[in-house]
Structures are given as C-alpha cells and as structure tokens.
Design brief:
Blueprint (H helix, E strand, L loop, with lengths): L3 E6 L6 H18 L4 E6 L2 H11 L5 E5 L16 H6 L4 E4 L2 H6 L4 H13 L3 E6 L3 H5 L3 H12 L5 H4 L3 E4 L13 H19 L1 H6 L2 E4 L4 H8 L6 E4 L6 H8 L3
Parallel strand pairs: 1-2, 1-8, 2-3, 3-4, 4-5, 5-6, 6-7, 7-8
Helix pairs in contact: 1-2, 1-12, 5-7, 7-9, 11-12
Bound molecules: phosphoenolpyruvate.
C-alpha cells in the first residue's frame, strides 16, 4: 500500500502568533480526526520550523517540512539554509522544485537534482514538485515537460533513494488560481508519471511511490481527486492555512 499524504505548503505566510495557533490547531484536530494511515505534513517558512516541530511533539501522524534548502552543506552562502541544518532540527520533509521556486528563483532541474541529493543524504524525504505551465498544457506537451523534470531532477537516484521521494504533480495553471485540474486530468497525468517511474525503476518501485496532486485542492474537491487510483494525496497551498479545511482534506480518502 502506498503512503497517503496530505502536505500543507504555507508558502511565505503567517506571522509568529498565527503560525503557532494554526500549527496547534492542526496537531490537535489531526490527532483526533485524521485517519491513522494518512500522514499530515506542515511545510512552514524556515523561521517557524523549530516552533512548529515542538508543537507537533509526539503526534504519530503529523510531520514538519521545509519548503526549500540550499545545495551546499555549510559555508559562506549568506541567507541560505542547508539540508544539514534542517536535519539538525528534526525536520522530516523538504519541498523541492515548487513552481514558484522554479519561476521566481530560477531553479533548474540540475540544481534540484543536487538539492534532492542533499535532502536524502541528511535523512529527510523530498516532496518533489513537477508540472506544466498553461502554455505547455495548451500545446499538449505536459507529458514531455514532466518527463524532463523527472529525468533531469530525479532519475540519477538509485532505486533505493528514489523510494524515499514523494512526487507532487502540480499543474502550474491550477496553483492558487482556483482552477483545479479535473479528476480525470489528474488521474491521466498521475498514471503517466507512474508509468515513467516504472519504465526507469520497475513496477514495484512505481507502485510504492506516493504521487500527490497540487493545485487549488480544497475540501469540496479532495474526495473526488483522492478517489482516483493514482492520486495518493495532496500538496495543499491556500487551504492549508485554515486548520479545519486542511484536516477535512486529510479525511477525504
Ligand atoms: C501549492 O502551492 O503547492 C498549491 C497547490 O497551492 P494552492 O493549493 O493554493 O493552489
């Protein structure tokens, strides 16, 4: 059975007090309501990670993730945070290759391959984002786009290390736009992605890979998305900032 995951991407949102109250609320509700076979992950801005980690405490199904890390382990890289530093705070997951990082910070597949290595080498798990922009979808090239992102960003990994990766298919035209991919569009791409993984690593590895959908997922559409055979959960932006909505999504399997 593949791991079911609902990961919240807080992006660059929330001041200290609001971050503490959201994280506390998520932990409290998730403990009681989220099915025990679903992992709930809060991916917070760096500055809140340590506090959120301590609020999660020993909750069995709640985890903490960062939204990025640097390629190098330490040194004169002012303003950056390394995978090694994140691991020293007990952080469990790191989102890599989010479309906002690719677009605004010029992150290439090659850079992301190095970041993936750093995350895995430090015992954390990458949530690796792939997905096409609107023009690519309109041109019908979405499959080629994700295939390139996978092959250049991840397919250098050994099968054992690839087994640590969580994939997130996020059509960029659906992120923060209120425009969700239909469940049929999501399923078609998730199946294609799983086939690409199978072609590289074999069916057993592909069948064990969790592929999350991201792009305007919310309580009202999560159930239909998660009912698709190749959709194993969600990477949730806007709706992860409201504890009740986020947890409702985690109950949508
Ligand atoms: C995201 O940022 O990864 C995302 C999916 O955002 P939203 O849910 O707001 O579309």
């Amino acid at each position: 059975m593949r791991q079911k995951i609902v990961a919240g991407n807080w992006k660059m949102n929330l001041l200290k007090e609001d971050a503490v109250s959201l994280a506390s609320e998520v932990v409290n509700i998730a403990k009681d309501e989220t099915p025990s076979d679903v992992k709930v992950i809060m991916c917070t801005p760096f500055i809140h990670l340590s506090k959120v980690k301590s609020l999660v405490g020993d909750a069995a199904n709640v985890f903490v993730g960062a939204q990025n890390c640097y390629t190098e382990p330490k040194g004169a890289y002012t303003g950056e945070i390394s995978a090694q530093q994140l691991a020293s705070y007990g952080i469990d997951y790191v989102i890599l290759g989010h479309s906002e990082r690719r677009e605004y910070f010029g992150e290439s597949n090659a850079t992301l391959a190095t970041k993936t290595d750093a995350v895995i080498a430090n015992g954390m798990l990458p949530i690796f984002c792939i997905g096409e922009v609107l023009e690519e979808r309109e041109a019908g090239t979405q499959k080629e786009v994700v295939e390139k992102q996978l092959s250049e960003g991840l397919f250098h990994l050994s099968a054992e290390d690839f087994g640590k990766v969580v994939l997130a298919y996020e059509p960029v035209w659906a992120i923060g736009t209120g425009k969700t991919a239909s469940s049929a569009q999501a399923q078609e791409m998730h199946k294609d992605i799983r086939d690409m993984v199978a072609a590289k690593y074999g069916q057993e590895v592909a069948d064990a890979t969790s592929i999350l959908y991201g792009g305007s997922a919310k309580p009202s559409n999560a159930q239909e998305l998660f009912a698709q055979p190749d959709v194993d959960g969600g990477l949730i932006g806007g709706a992860s900032l409201v504890a009740r909505d986020f947890i409702e999504i985690s109950k949508s399997y």
